[in-house]
Amino acid sequence: MSALLEISHLDVHFATPDGDVHALKDASLTINEAECLGVVGESGSGKSQLFLAAFGLLAGNGRATGSVRYRGEEILGAPARRLNALRGGAVTMIFQDPLTSLTPHMRIGEQIIEALTHHQKISRDDAVKRAREMLDYVRIPESARRLRQYPHELSGGMRQRVMIAMATITGPDLIIADEPTTALDVTVQAQILEILRALKTDKKTAIAMVSHDMGVIAGLADRVQVMRHGAIVETGTADEIFYAPRHAYTRMLLDALPKADEVPAPATEVGAPLLTVEDVKVSFPVKDKGLFGKTRTLRAVDGISFTLHQGETLGIVGESGCGKSTLARAVLQLLPKTGGRVVWLGRDLDAATQSDIRKLRKDFQIVFQDPLASLDPRMPIGVSIAEPLKTLEPGRAGKDKVRAIMQRVGLDPAWINRYPHELSGGQNQRVGLARAMIVGPQMLVCDEAVSALDVSIQAQIVALIRDLQAETRLSLMFISHDLSVVRRLSHRVMVLYLGRIVELAPSAALYADPRHPYTRALLSAVLSPDPRAERARKRELLTGDLPSPLDPRAQLTFLKSRLGEPDYRPRLIEVAPQHFVAEHDEAAAAASRS
Amino acid sequence: MIGFALRRFLGAIPTLFVIVTLAFFMMRAAPGGPFDGERKLPPEVERNIKAAYNLDKPLGEQYLIYLGKVAQGDLGPSYKNKDFTVVRLIATGLPVSARLGLCAMALALLLGTLLGVMAALKQNHWEDYSVMGIAMLGITIPTFVTAPILTLLFGIYLGWLPVGGWSGGALPNMVLPVTVLALPQIAIVARMMRGSMVEVLRANYIRTARAKGLPATRIVLAHALRAAALPLVSYLGPALAAILTGSLVVENIFGLPGIGRYFIQGALNRDYTLVMGVVICYATLIILLNFLADIAYGILDPRVRLS
Prior knowledge:
- Chain A is α/β, with parallel strands linked by helices.
- Chain A has two domains: 3-256, P-loop containing nucleotide triphosphate hydrolases (Rossmann fold), CATH 3.40.50.300; 273-363 and 441-590, Rossmann fold (3-Layer(aba) Sandwich), CATH 3.40.50.
- In chain A, 33% of the residues lie in helices and 26% in strands.
- Chain A is built from 21 helices and 22 strands.
- An eight-stranded mixed beta sheet of chain A has the order 16-17-18-13-19-20-22-21, sandwiched between helices. In chain A, strands 6-7-8-3-9-10 form a six-stranded mixed beta sheet, sandwiched between helices. In chain A, strands 2-1-4-5 form a four-stranded antiparallel beta sheet.
- Chain A is globular.
- Chain A starts with a strand and ends in a 12-residue tail after the last strand.
- Chain B is mainly alpha-helical.
- Chain B has two domains: 2-71, no CATH class; 89-304, MetI-like (MetI-like fold).
- Chain B contains twelve helices and no strands.
- Chain B has helices at 2-29, 43-52, 59-71, 86-121, 126-140, 143-157, 171-201, 204-211, 216-244, 248-253, 260-269, 272-300.
- The longest helix of chain B has 36 residues, at 86-121.
- Chain B is globular and about 85 Å long.
- Classes of the chains: A alpha/beta, B mainly alpha.
- At the A-B interface, helix 2 of A face helix 1, helix 8 and helix 9 of B.
């Protein structure tokens, strides 16, 4: 095996208004041909900068020193002409967030083709043909039509496949995949990883897999490097890193991951019913394109019923577009419902006036996904935290209360006058929790509250929520796309698919004995930090994208025998005590949904 | 597309109506009238003139008469420029102003974009600082300073260009006024372009383009320029309308027969119909140009296409 890329003693400095930032410290690594190197680290570990620096893509204020050899040739500081020949040709890159990583005003065909035509002498027709072959390879159907579309017309998973097509069309020796699946749904993530795996085995392409997610690395990497604060702390084969980690930080990363066999018992006993949701529906009008585009109805939430008990955690799981956030907002009266009832402690909330609901908000609070964006950037965190109390119970608001709650959620009370941008993501989410908890609610809705956080921080915030729940007998609606996080908190779990429940069961039953094919596919797509298991695993992959919620027949994806009745909605059937499953065709289990 | 244009056209009618109404009554609310001069007219003469122009009727009735005429495309006679209708005045003046304005704007777009992109690519280097410094000068120095200086230099000392006059729009006569009109616009366009270009160059898709090994020119032209031009488009609509309807200062200094001076003269003289005519002309242009800007937006950014 010969070394394809050798990076040695690479240092990166950024000149910032606050002085010099030493982003990468003496990093060295080797990638051999046809090998996958996993580079793991949390945000700010310098893992992305490492490869950007190696190929001359640092931001203007960055400076790299050291040595980067590609097939023995020194390329650090090489002239732009040489780097341009290499980049996009022999070495290509896939980035996180394919929406912002594709040029919005260029057709995707144009973007794929230019990658080819700038590196190889090829006629336009041949280039188009190659582009279509590439789209087929990454399993994008109707390639001819797709080539003429713009990035915003594709789903997130499609866009990432376009990125992969773009990065593979020149037949590179090395693909640098920088968090290629991070913003994607689990089932789509599984599909993308499958494509990368195929690239490695079929085309013998070396891959540098940069990720914060040990699970993503586990299934793909031959060797792994762990990075922290800009330095490489541990290097080894995948088995060494996962089964015999030597560095404390590696162990901490692995311990922070939810493990299937260690599920903590729920924090509280379940009490009397608190909230009853009956057949709630929320729909939005969507106007078709064009002059006489007709208005269609998007049923974001299409008839959902459940009961939440005191002290209970109801996990709500589903992929993007399944209506989980819309449901939460409708329940909290933050969105108008199209139908159904929400009853809070025997009181019909639809009959309550706006000012009554404002008073009731003391009892139900919400924590949002993006901790930084959900806080007012011009307000010190102390003021943000105190605000609900000032509004709902003006007499009780005081700095002491704010300091006490800050202490409780693990924030230094001395930070009361700091601003959100001065805190980290995890700290800001603690502010979000403090703001929600200060009024002493009976129910807390966590809408993807830990999704944007690093795994180690995620574990801390989940533990904090558990503690708060144990202390106050709080009821939780815990919404997440991440099944393993939901499992750690939930008494019962509800799986949503296109605005409807497909399965609702006690947590243990759902994970041990999933009945609905969609639930099974979701669970099968969950990655575990166990390379041997990941390599050996047969997956129940769903192919294609989620069907459009505008398509009335989409609900029948798993009940194809009823396709003739587009208004039919699968019924929920109790298959075991408290275990409800939506009607489905057993044969459709592995069927395509596109 | 046609539906979009139709909707916008229908939407423009009430807008114009409101503008006409407001302008009409505000004009009348201002003290004085078109025939109040230093020397008072004999009462019977004044009465006759007012009757001839319908100014003796109640205000509401005058308004209705005016509206009816506007609907037929008749903007009435000018009170001060005797023997000329407002339509005629605008028809002779607007082409001159529009031609100057268009040339100036084209020049500004070309040079401004070029300078702005250059500054953005050399962000925080001397090229950037010098372009931005000069642009600041261009914005702060008013046209009534640049016009005489340039006239003095190129018209009098060097004798290369005529110092004024229109001569039916001969090229040498246009150079100085167009340059004077364009200078602040070049500066504004350059600054806007630099700002948005710096922003766009930081975008993830530019990183992708660089990672594809594309040369810098291709990155700027194919990937960055369209997105960076977006803020410019929203500026261009109103700016173009303003520059097309003429500049009082430039037209006066160079003695050009544009419509910029009619507006001011009309307002000072209470030449009601002339002011109203220019207002209608200006408002129509604004509406039209904003419509074009919206279309341009759709062309530049497929995400906003007629949604």
